[in-house]
Amino acid sequence: MVPDHAGLTGHSDGDAVAHAVIDAILGAAALGNVGSHFPPTDATWKNADSIELLRASSTVLQEAGWSVGNVDVTVICETPKIGPHSSAMRARLGDAMQIPWERISIKGKTNERMGWIGAGEGLAVHAVALVEAR
To answer: Is the dihedral of CA 88, 92, 95, 100 positive or negative?
Structure first.
């Protein structure tokens, strides 16, 4: 959570970065996505901590014989500025995936005030992961 920012609303805790990383690591190993493992139709996941979902997804990945090589994340939003928070975010994601934070890149970019993102009505997150057979 970024201090002094309202955050997002979602079935779990609305952590869009964690959800994008879950989709990236599971997708890179052809193991589904966040919705197939933690469906929004299941009340179990209501208000769930997305970092714990990432931790569980990392376990699924490892049990299938894969490990995370690296992750690259781009957060597209007008506010908050991502740069000042990227180190803490990298550490938290690395801890959940059990990889060094140095293998995680998080950067922000704006949408130049265009569209719903530019109007501050939401954000987008792109994440790409390299997974390696163990």
So the answer is: negative
